[in-house]
UniProtKB/TrEMBL annotation:
HAMAP family in UniProt: DnaJ (MF_01152)
Pfam family, one: DnaJ
Similarity annotation: Belongs to the DnaJ family.
GO biological process, one term: DNA replication
Biological classification of the source: Bacteria, Bacillati, Mycoplasmatota, Mycoplasmoidales, Metamycoplasmataceae
Entry remark concerning the domains of this protein: The J domain is necessary and sufficient to stimulate DnaK ATPase activity. Zinc center 1 plays an important role in the autonomous, DnaK-independent chaperone activity of DnaJ. Zinc center 2 is essential for interaction with DnaK and for DnaJ activity.
Originating organism: [Mycoplasma] anseris
Protein name: Chaperone protein DnaJ
Protein function: Participates actively in the response to hyperosmotic and heat shock by preventing the aggregation of stress-denatured proteins and by disaggregating proteins, also in an autonomous, DnaK-independent fashion. Unfolded proteins bind initially to DnaJ; upon interaction with the DnaJ-bound protein, DnaK hydrolyzes its bound ATP, resulting in the formation of a stable complex. GrpE releases ADP from DnaK; ATP binding to DnaK triggers the release of the substrate protein, thus completing the reaction cycle.
Cofactor requirement: Zn(2+)
Amino acid sequence: MSEKAKRDYYEVLGINKNATEKEIKSAYRKLAMKYHPDRNKEADAEEKFKEATEAYEVLIDPEKKAKYDKFGHGAFDKNSFNFSEDIFQDIFSQFGSAFSGGFNSSNPFEDIFGFGSSKKRRGPSRGDDLQMSITIEFIDSVFGKKSKVSLNKNNICSHCKGTGAETKEDIVTCPNCNGTGEKMQSMGFFSTIVQCNKCNGKGKIIKRVCSKCKGSKYESSFELVDIEIPAGIKENEQIKLTGFGMPSLEGGPRGDLYIFVHIKPHKYYERMNDDILLNVPISIKSIILEEEVAIPTPYGEKTIKLTKNTKPNAILKLSGYGFKNRRTNKKGDLIISLEPYIPDINKTDIDKLKEVFDNSKDSIFDKWKKEF
């Protein structure tokens, strides 16, 4: 349809500019039924059907409708206009399961009405991707790790060459569709082309399945593969192994294998973004005597010096002792929370401590008490 030949969209649907969404849908539904090419064999039926569909797509969309009301057909580039599959799912959903699978083709007319060539191919498709999971230790997520993993790799069956049949003679034409892979399905006055449910659209069925792969078309073998787990990897991140997915039965490239990495929780360390959290029990003796304490970190022990001013639940930070950020290449920190505790002491030591404390002056408590 040329740009000059285009009629007013409201005129096409037979509605006025104030029509509601319900009225627009109703008008389009009537025209779609009237000019559907499977029902109407007139020479211009398909053209009128497309014209109604184009008008509907614009007027049912508030943004497109506003542009059309303001600029007319000039609001849209005719070379970029595409029919929306949502139209057909919305309008024809009432006709049952024939449309329940959605639209797989880039041409909605081909999906619904069988227009165009459904046999067009862009070349052999690639094999399916596969997924698997592995679990690593917390420390391995800090430093990374190279690991050998035995993978079950699928290959095309060497006996049936991917046909799933015992012999070539066991592959016969589907009697249900006569090899077309399609059947005409009628629903009252409405009919459409659907996939044959006996051969699943292949046009062929198998009398005897392959004795080696039992009809699966694949055989498996184990392969030892080196997997490199990067330092700083996070829970549920993926590692991609190119070409370790399913092979293509059509001669295309293999799919890929995606390995989801799970990290085993550590008894003491906890991750927070690129930082590591650690609760450290500290004896009040070490605080009073201002001792040095060796803190275990993923990178080895780090000595810190305590002071008598160290408060319960004090937070200390060791910069650069956390996870490596793979994007910035910088390391997070080790965040230490000190948890003071009273060590076990006998009665003799308690008496000695009592004597020491009795001779000391508790200035903080005395100052606080004076506030009352």
